[in-house]
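Researcher: Quick test of sequence recovery. Tokens follow.
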């Protein structure tokens, strides 16, 4: 009897994880693109700042 209960708990946890996985995947991709764009923005602004400060 104990094994059946444990197996049902494992199946319930797996179903819950399957439901959460697409949400986790979407959030992780959003954060990846956010940090990539943030990095490009900072490097671009630093480059223009260096160019403008060198010629002043």
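Model:
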């Amino acid at each position: 009897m104990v094994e059946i209960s444990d197996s049902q708990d494992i199946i319930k946890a797996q179903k819950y994880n399957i439901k959460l996985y697409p949400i986790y995947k979407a959030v992780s991709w959003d954060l990846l693109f956010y940090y990539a764009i943030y990095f490009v923005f900072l490097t671009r602004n630093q480059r223009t700042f260096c160019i403008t400060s060198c010629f002043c």
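Helices lie at 2-55.
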